[in-house]
Design a protein that fits this description.
Chain B: Its main location: membrane. Chain B: The chain crosses the membrane at residues 32-54, 93-118, 139-162, 215-232, 252-274. Chain B: This is Peptide ABC transporter permease. Chain B: It is a multi-pass membrane protein. The complex is a heterodimer of chains A (319) and B (293). In chain A, 77% of the residues lie in helices and 0% in strands. By secondary structure, chain A is an all-alpha fold. Chain A folds into two domains: 1-75, no CATH class; 88-314, MetI-like fold, CATH 1.10.3720. Chain B is mainly α and 293 residues long. Helices cover 74% and strands 0% of the residues of chain B. Chain B is elongated. Classes of the chains: A mainly alpha (319), B mainly alpha (293).
């Protein structure tokens, strides 16, 4: 039962990605002008233009180009960047790992902290801690990510205290994680952007769970309160929270663009901003499809967590 | 209390009862939110009118050397008066955000109600289409559109509105789905009221609570997106004065001349916190209505 549901969900996800790829590809077909001209510049000779068009398969009909592009995604051949003339895959490979490091560190901090703060908030309902946590997360949730980033820079790096570097400046070719101090501010910004949603969802779900019959039952039969919370309440609250965490993680992929630009962090977000500014279509296409894929995968994982932790589905599979 | 007085009082009470806005504004949090929102709204609306005579310069006029402290809040990266640019920089942000929110709500509410009220096949099709649009983060979608169409105002408004629509549609659909099983809908159907009329006169008035909350949320997000895109250099173009753009232009001099960044950051922060406080209070008020009645 569960495996069949997961399989169906997987097929739906692949379908969504396929349609997204069509959307991304056709959006850029609307672009006026000749990509070969854009790469070679105005002074290019007719021969070289023709040669590059041949090399980029621009003379083929659109569906052949789409299929070639789609195939290229799977083989790691993402085309040629119009701005640098180099291969898109080479441009992006380092940046993807840099972005993943940022997202992973932020996620590793934000998810447990959010769950703990949300749980504690629910346990101390309407007391001082709960009010403070709710208020702070409401304010944080309303601020755009670059506002949080700029405020952190002003507070911790420039105007008030000068503790941390405000830009990432790893020499080219060196990995960003060799400079952990430079990672602090981007990570902190990302954590502050994501955590309010996790706290709010965890708090709301925990409140609901704590009012439920099985928690009351556990308390009545004399299970110690600590165990009631860790064994009975928290596992039931995790399913819905996994969905929110997934949406947040996926959303981080969008918000990370602004944060990377703000801190000059050498990830795919910064690459996307550069590519849009230079109208570097191949790179924009590649990054869009990568981000969409990340979103779909994360969502799929969240749904699987939801299905596996849902006891109703478990009993159905036994029946 | 005499019976007559009670009778006299009753109609007045009935009139007051389910007013969502009044229930919202009774909360302290909503009052703070409204005050913050109105403050920034006033700056954005009346700032441009006050311009030449209040600060002595327009928002694009050069008044001195870059990043000095002449004038009330100093000069910006090109030597323009920061305060003038600040006063002039909010109107477009607000107009664009409001338009984007309006487009998103209109499209989303129509799609969501149609999906909830139509047969399973159309519903499934609409929601699958939604899933596709939801797979790209709104900002990335906007950047894709800007690559193709260029950084123009209508592109910004349209793409943010269109990407709001599937998110609004989801909320509308689930709210409408709860209403559609009610008896009064079935009664209207028996009287052969046209479907569009049922949606407009029976369903829509009964889902205003969640929709108002969604409106507030979308407005907060729209402000964030428009400001973020301007900050990335893809929204408002120089020499226009705009809060997002100002932050980008002046952030290199945060140590020497912080006002060029602090003023617009404060304005955006106060505005979004204000709208979100209002939204949160609206959500509480509308939840109470549903529970209470």
């Amino acid at each position: 039962m569960i495996s069949r549901m997961i399989l169906r969900r997987l097929v739906v996800s692949l379908g969504i990605l396929l349609v997204v790829s069509l959307l991304v590809f056709f959006a850029t077909l609307l672009l006026p002008g000749d990509p070969a001209q854009a790469i070679l510049g105005q002074q290019a000779t007719e021969d070289r233009l023709a040669a590059l068009r041949e090399q980029m398969n621009l003379n083929d009909p659109w569906w052949q180009r789409y299929l070639a592009w789609l195939g290229g995604i799977f083989t790691g051949n993402l085309g040629i960047s119009a701005a640098t003339g180099g291969s898109v895959a080479a441009l992006l490979s380092e940046r993807i790992s840099a972005s993943l490091v940022l997202l992973a560190v932020a996620g590793v901090i934000a998810i447990p902290v959010g769950i703990i703060v949300g749980t504690y908030s629910a346990l101390r309902r309407d007391r001082g801690f709960d009010r403070a946590a709710t208020g702070v997360s409401l304010v944080l949730a309303s601020l755009p990510e670059f506002v949080i980033g700029v405020v952190l820079i002003a507070l911790l790096s420039t105007t008030v205290f000068k503790l941390l570097p405000s830009v990432t400046m790893a020499p080219p070719g060196e990995a960003v994680w060799n400079y952990p101090l430079q990672l602090v501010l981007p990570t902190l910004t990302l954590v502050l952007v994501v955590i309010p949603y996790i706290i709010r969802m965890m708090r709301a779900t925990m409140l609901e769970v704590l009012d439920s019959g099985y928690v009351e039952m556990a308390r009545l039969k004399g299970v110690p309160e600590r165990q009631v919370i860790t064994r009975h309440a928290i596992p039931h609250a995790l399913g819905p929270v996994a969905q929110v965490v997934a949406i947040q993680l996926a959303w981080m992929a969008g918000g990370v663009v602004v944060i990377e630009f703000l801190f000059r962090y050498p990830g795919i977000g910064q690459a996307l901003v550069d590519a849009v500014t230079n109208r570097d279509v191949q790179v924009v296409q590649a990054i869009s499809i990568i981000i969409a894929a990340a979103y779909v995968v994360v969502n799929l994982l969240a749904d699987v967590v939801g299905m596996v932790t849902n006891p109703k589905l478990r009993t159905e599979s036994a029946a | 209390m005499s019976a007559a007085a009670e009778v006299l009082e009753r109609p007045a009470k009935l009139e007051k009862k389910p007013n969502l806005l009044m229930r919202t504004l009774r909360q302290k949090q909503a009052k703070i939110g409204l005050a913050l929102t109105l403050l920034v709204l006033a700056i954005a609306l009346f700032g441009p009118l006050a311009l030449p005579w209040l600060t002595g310069s327009t928002s694009t006029e050069f008044t001195g050397r870059p990043f000095t402290s002449t004038g009330l809040f100093g000069t910006d990266n090109l030597g323009r008066d920061v305060f003038s640019r600040f006063l002039d920089g909010g109107l477009k942000l607000l107009v664009y955000s409001a338009l984007a929110t309006g487009i998103g709500m209109l499209l989303g509410v129509v799609l969501g109600m149609v999906a909830a009220y139509s047969g399973r096949r159309l519903d499934g099709l609409l929601m699958r289409g939604n899933d596709v649009l939801l797979a790209l983060p709104q900002l990335v979608f906007a950047m894709l559109a800007i690559t193709v169409l260029g950084p123009q105002g209508w592109v910004l408004v349209l793409v943010i509105g269109v990407t709001h629509a599937p998110r609004v549609a989801r909320v509308t659909r689930s709210a409408a789905a709860a209403v559609i099983t009610e008896d009064y809908i079935r009664a209207s159907e028996m009287y052969a009221v046209p479907r569009w009329k049922i949606l407009l006169t029976e369903v829509l008035p009964n889902i205003t609570g969640p929709l108002m909350v969604e409106l507030g949320l979308r407005m907060t997000y729209s402000i964030g997106f428009v400001a973020a895109l301007s900050f990335l250099g893809m929204g408002m173009q120089p020499p226009n004065a705009d809060w997002g753009l100002m932050i980008n232009e002046n952030r290199i001099a945060l140590v020497v001349q912080p006002w060029g960044v602090i003023l617009p950051v404060l304005a955006i922060a106060v505005l979004t916190v204000g709208t979100n406080l209002l939204t949160d209070s609206l959500a509480r008020a509308s939840a109470n209505i549903n529970v209470g009645n």
